[in-house]
């Protein structure tokens, strides 16, 4: 009996406690809801105030815009007229260059355009060309000098364009090339000025001056691969002095750091193949692959240059387009030599990616120059290589 009474009392207490807890929770929830409502009301008020402020600002801006619109329209109209005039003048000059303009461009047109476009080297250069076409070299020089003084100092490329044009003009028509060349060196990248002047002297077939400048360049920039390479190409292509080109290559290897030796020897071999002596170019590559047998890039360049030199027949100006596209047939000895290079290349056993490239290159070569049997032979070699890899796994 006592136990049952105690249980009943405990149950009643639990029920009372539950009721109290539920009441407290309800009160808390009500308080939270009230707080949320207050916050939302405040936010709505703030939002309305902000919207009112924004609307006031917009209204003011529209009033200001409407008041100043007439003045701005007048300004824009005047600017548009100026821009249209500049566009018309530009078109006139361009059409005059292309020979499509019925009206001749006059100095007045250039002067008018340069008022607003004083920093554009293209306009100055076309102005210089205008006087050169008229045969007035002195006036062309005056325009070049004006351009150098007028163009802003920080526009280095625009000024460089004027200097390059000035060098071209003096090389082709004038006699002040050395003076302009020295001035250009003072304010521009010296190496780029040397390289540009070499090209201009080559174009104008001033070979003595070209050789002097190249000799001066390799002394001044003895650590520059570009200058040595350019001189080597000029000796093969323009000056036609193979023996001296070989001496210059040896000098370059003494002057340049060792990391640049490989590139300059490859370039020298390329020039030998292209312009002079295929056998000497071949010897250069053979020495390189003996020294760097694991360099796949050397092997690939050797193959490309050697195959191109044999397959591309010399093109004459009188040849038709079909004749120029024709690939020269190779002799058995030439084919065997190229296949021998591929065999040696494969024997080194590079990574699978490189080996795949070698097989695809060889197969393409056989498709162009070989027979069905030689193609099958390459495919079999590729299959055997894949089988050897599977055996290792």
Counted by DSSP, the helix tally is 17
Structural class: mainly alpha
Order of helices and strands: HHHHHHHHHHHHHHHHH
Main sheet, how many strands, which sense, barrel? none
Low-confidence stretches: 65-89
Shape: flat
Structural description of this entry:
- One of its GO terms (molecular function) is RNA binding.
- One of its GO terms (biological process) is rRNA processing.
- Residues 1-80 are annotated as: Disordered.
- Residues 1-39 have a biased composition (Basic residues).
- This is rRNA biogenesis protein RRP5, putative.
- With 393 residues, this protein is mainly α.
- Among the domains are: 196-292, Serine Threonine Protein Phosphatase 5, Tetratricopeptide repeat, CATH 1.25.40; 294-393.
- The chain is built from 17 helices and no strands.
- The chain has helices at residues 2-98, 107-116, 121-134, 137-150, 156-172, 177-187, 190-203, 207-220, 225-237, 242-255, 261-275, 278-291, 296-311, 321-325, 332-347, 352-369, 372-392.
- Helix 4 runs antiparallel to helix 5 (156-172), helix 5 (156-172) runs antiparallel to helix 6 (177-187) and helix 9 (225-237) packs antiparallel against helix 10 (242-255).
- The longest helix is centred in the N-terminal third of the chain and has 97 residues, at 2-98.
- The radius of gyration is 41 Å and the shape is flat.
- The N and C termini lie far apart (85 Å).
